[in-house]
C-alpha cells in the first residue's frame, strides 16, 4: 500500500476492527478510510464493487471473512471477475485480489472451516494460490497484488498463529512456484496451506522409522507449477497428495491425473490421495477425524511403498 | 402494510402526453425551462436517434429470422426512455448497460454492428468502452452490472472526480437495468453500497412490465420507485415513453449526483412492444389489448406530433426515414460480411499475463489443426 497508492483494502470489519483475524489491523489508521474500506455485509457487493473500482484504475484487495461465506460472491467472481478481461478482448485487466481465510483446525462452527479452492482453480481467468508460511505469505501477497489478473489468495487460517522467519531480501517468492521443502528419497508427499506442516510432521515420524519422505509445498493451485513436482516424483517414483478439501473433483485429483500421465514410466505405485471426506465439514468435535493428519498420510505412504 | 401507510400514489412525471402535447402543470414546472433551452437541432437529434434505433432493431430482428443471428434482443418501445436519458449524460460519465440499451449505445457512439457481433457469436464483448464514450459492455447476468457501476462510482468519490463545481470535469455513472433485475440480490446490494458511500450514480430502471413472461406484479407488490426510496435514494417515477421527461429528469438527477448529492433512482414506465428475445413468444402470456394500449403511447409517434406542432415539416421526417433505411442496409451488408474470429481468440485474453496452461493448450490446438494438413 505504501508502494502503490492505487491499492485498496475492502471487506467486512477490516477497517476499525482490523478484520476478524486482525490481518488488516492498523491499516485504516495508517492509510485512511478511503483506502481501507469497511463495506456493508454483502459478499457479492464486495466483489462486484471491487470490479468497478478496478475498472476505475484501482487494485482492490478484498477480504472474504470466512471460506464458507464466499458463495454469495461466487457469481461475481466466476461469471464477472474471471471473465471480464476475456469479454473485453484484452482491453481491460482485472487486478483484483480476493483473500480467503480457509480450512479447518480451529474448532469453529459450520461454514467456518471449509476448503473451497477447487471451485476457483477450476475457473478459467482466475489464479489461485495458498501460502503455507509467514515468509511465503509476505512475498506472495505482494505478487498477487502486483498481478494484472484476478488472484484468489487462500490463507490457511490455522497458520495465522504459528510464528515463522521472514527473509525481507528481494526477490522473495514468485506467485506460482511449487517448492521442495524437505528432501527425501522414497516417497514424495505434496500439499498446500496448512497441510504442509502436517506433511513435515509425517516426514519426521517416517524418518524415525527409517522412511525418507520428500515434501513438496504446492503454493500455487492454478496454474500448478509441475516442474518441481515431476522432478521429485521421477526421483522417488511414488506420490501421495494430501489436502483438507473433499477429494472428489479436487485440486489433488487434477494433479494425480497429470502426474500419472507425465511421469508414468517413473511411477512405482499409483498416485494416492489423502483428502477430507466427501461429506460436509463435520461439527468441530469431529474435525480431527475428518482432516487428514500425519497418521493418515503415513498410512497412504505405507500403501504406496507396498506396491 | 397498507398502501395508505406508504403514502398516496403520485402519477409519473410526464412532459409530453401520448398525443404529443407539452404538459404545463405544478409537477412539470421545474423541467420546462430545460426543455425550452433545447435547440431545434437537439430536438431533431432525439427524433433521429429514436427512429434510427427502431429501424436498426427491426433489421436485426429480420436478420435473426433469416438465420443470420442466433438471437436478437428487441428494444422496440423503449427508445424514449433510452434516448432521453442518454442525451442527458455527459461525455465524461460512465454508462453500465444491461443488454437492451441499443439506443443508449448508439447515442454514445458504438457501431451497431458491434452489438450484432455479440448475437452472431463472433465476440462476447464488441467494443472498448474507453473508445466509445465510456459505454461499458453489455452484461447478460441480470443485474450484475449495477455493482460494477457502483464500484466505479466509489472510485470517482475516492479520486474526488466529482463535486468540484466544474461541470466539464465532474463525473457520474448511470446504470441501466429492468424490472426483473430489481429482484436480484446484486441490484439491492448495489443500492446499499451506493447509499452507504453516497456515490455519484443514477440507477435507471426501465420497467417494461415483463421479465420474459413474468409480470412486474410478481417482482414487487409496490411501485418499483419505492425500492429506491427504501434504500434512502431520492427516486422519481417518469413516463418512460416520453423522451423529454426522460431527458429532463435524468439531467436533474445526474447534475445532483455530479454535485455530490449522492445517488438517484429513476423508474421509467415503458413497455417492450416486441418479444423478450426472438426465442420468446409473448402471445403466450400477455394480451393483444395490453400491447395495443402501449402502442397508443408510442414514444416516437408522440414526439413526432410534438415536433410537427412546433412547425417541423415533412422534409425532416423524410430525411430521417431515408437515413434509417441507409443504416439498416449498411448493417445488413456488414453483418453478412462478418467472419468467424480467429481460433486464438479463445485463448488470447483469458489472462492479462502469461499462463502456462493456456499457452500449452493454444499450442496443442495449433499443432492438432496443422496435423490435418491442407485438407481443412
From TrEMBL, chain A:
Q: Which InterPro entries match?
A: THDP-binding, Transketo_C/PFOR_II, Transketolase-like_Pyr-bd, Transketolase_C
The record, for Gene3D superfamilies, names: 3.40.50.920, 3.40.50.970
Annotated keywords: Oxidoreductase, Thiamine pyrophosphate
Give a Pfam family name. Transket_pyr
Query: Which domain of life, per UniProt?
Result: Bacteria
CDD domains per record: TPP_PYR_E1-PDHc-beta_like
Has the keyword Lipoprotein been applied to this entry?
Answer: no
Q: Which cofactor does it need?
A: thiamine diphosphate
Q: Where is the Transketolase-like pyrimidine-binding domain?
A: 1-162
Acetylation recorded as keyword? no
The cross-references to PANTHER family, in alphabetical order and at most eight, read: PYRUVATE DEHYDROGENASE E1 COMPONENT BETA SUBUNIT, PYRUVATE DEHYDROGENASE E1 COMPONENT SUBUNIT BETA
Q: What is this protein called?
A: 2-oxoisovalerate dehydrogenase subunit beta
What species does this protein belong to?
Frondihabitans sucicola
From TrEMBL, chain B:
Q: Which residues form the Dehydrogenase E1 component domain?
A: 49-311
User: Pfam families annotated for this entry?
Assistant: E1_dh
Which UniProt keywords are given for this protein, alphabetically ordered? Answer: Oxidoreductase, Pyruvate, Thiamine pyrophosphate
Asked if the Swiss-Prot or TrEMBL record annotates the protein with the keyword Glycosyltransferase, the reply is no
Name the coenzymes or cofactors required: thiamine diphosphate
* InterPro entries to which the protein is assigned, alphabetical: Alpha-ketoacid_DH_E1_comp, DH_E1, THDP-binding
Q: Does the keyword Hydrolase apply?
A: no
Q: Which reaction does it catalyse?
A: N(6)-[(R)-lipoyl]-L-lysyl-[protein] + 3-methyl-2-oxobutanoate + H(+) = N(6)-[(R)-S(8)-2-methylpropanoyldihydrolipoyl]-L-lysyl-[protein] + CO2
EC nos: 1.2.4.4
The similarity annotation says:
Belongs to the BCKDHA family.
What is the annotated role of this protein in its UniProt record?
Answer: The branched-chain alpha-keto dehydrogenase complex catalyzes the overall conversion of alpha-keto acids to acyl-CoA and CO(2). It contains multiple copies of three enzymatic components: branched-chain alpha-keto acid decarboxylase (E1), lipoamide acyltransferase (E2) and lipoamide dehydrogenase (E3).
Task: Please report the name of this protein according to its UniProt entry.
Answer: 2-oxoisovalerate dehydrogenase subunit alpha
